[in-house]
Amino acid sequence: MKKALTVTMLVFSITTFAKPKAMVVVLEAPLYQSPSEEASVLQILRRGQVIYLHGREFSGYEKDQGFFKTVTRDGSDAYIPIKFVKVVHNNLNELDEPMIALNNDPTDYRLEEPLPRNYPIASEKSLLASFNFHYGSSFKQHYQHNLKLNKENFSSQFGLTGFYAKKANFDKTNRFYFGFEGGILSQESEFLLSDNRYVKESHTEINFGPVLNYDFYRNEKYSWGIRGGLKVGYNRHLVRQDGDLGEEERLFHGISFSSNIGTILQLKKLLPSDQYFVSVGADVSMKFPFTMTTSTEAQIPSYWNETNDTIAVDLTTNFSMFAGVIGNF
Q1: In what order do the strands lie in the sheet with 21-24?
Q2: Which of 254, 256, 257, 255 minimizes the C-alpha distance to 294?
Q3: What domains can be seen in the chain, in order of their start residue?
């Protein structure tokens, strides 16, 4: 009887005074001097290590600002973030807290294989290339018709543009890029002359020239820069007239020179890639005066201006917007 009473008291004392435990579920869990992640770190625990919590029952654990109170190996009081451990209940309460580590372990510094390209030394990206859809204001130049215009209509200018540039050798900040840009742009215009003659003009320009790009602001989400350049363009202007005497079309062409300056914004988080980004921007261009001529003889002379059978283009400005994809290589 005395022996049974002793065993019962021993079991009662163990279950009564046993310290509750918790297991570390992250790679490295810090023990802080106070319940704050800004406090000094007293000890580092590895995943799977078991610690004792302050308190005798689950309802009695001391929680302070998201921390459990525990002790270090030398017996000093310490605090561990609740999210870094899993309490060991040794009863059905285990089902309420499954043993699952954090999906994104903030303490896991290891790199999963395959390792990032060029690790551990990242290659210096020195090339930029872009492909953009272009939309701009109208190019309001047309053939000098010999009759009054009763109606006129100009479409917006649209097309495709792109550029290819390399980082300047003198630049150690990876901001200056020098290269070439080009594009193909087109638009249409319609006129109704005083003799009810219908005229449709189609203008296409293919341009190419040097460009300078500079990123003046960058962070992890986007880069914002300016760019400018000079272009030489081949202009093709088709004039088609339809009236009482029939239909005739003639082709005019000429070489133009222009300059442009604009801004470009690279959005780095919209595509699932660290190499290709979405780019948007705006340009203002200035086209210098030039003349387009034709080598096609007029078949219906009354449709055409015999004294000025050319298309003289004055100094013009154009505002445009673009959007596309830019790659950093």
Answers
A1: 50-52, 21-24, 85-88
A2: 254
A3: 19-96 (2.30.30.40), 127-328 (2.40.160.20)
pLDDT above 70 coverage of the chain, percent:
85
**Considering only CA atoms, which of 306, 190, 286, 202 is closest in space to residue 252?**
202
How large a percentage of the chain has pLDDT more than 90? 61
More confident position, 9 or 244: 244
Identify the residue with better confidence: 20 or 193. 193
Instruction: State whether residue 79 is helix, strand or coil.
Output: strand
Instruction: Give the integer Cα–Cα distance in Å for 297 and 311.
Output: 15
Q: How many CB atoms lie within 10 A of CB 299?
A: 13
What was the pLDDT predicted at 55?
67
- Prior bond to 120 cis, omega within 30? yes
**Quick one: pLDDT at residue 135?**
96
Give DSSP secondary structure letters for 273-295: -SSEEEEEEEEEEEE--EEEB--
Give this prediction's pTM: 0.64
* Cα–Cα distance measured from residue 256 to residue 163, given in angstroms and rounded to the nearest whole number: 19
CA distance 163 to 135: 16
Say how far apart CA 263 and CA 258 lie, in whole Å.
17
pLDDT at 98: 57
Asked if residues 128 and 177 have their Cβ atoms less than 8 Å apart, the reply is yes
- Which ranges constitute the DSSP H helices of the chain? 2-17
What is the model's pLDDT at position 266? 94
Start-to-end C-alpha separation, the chain = 85
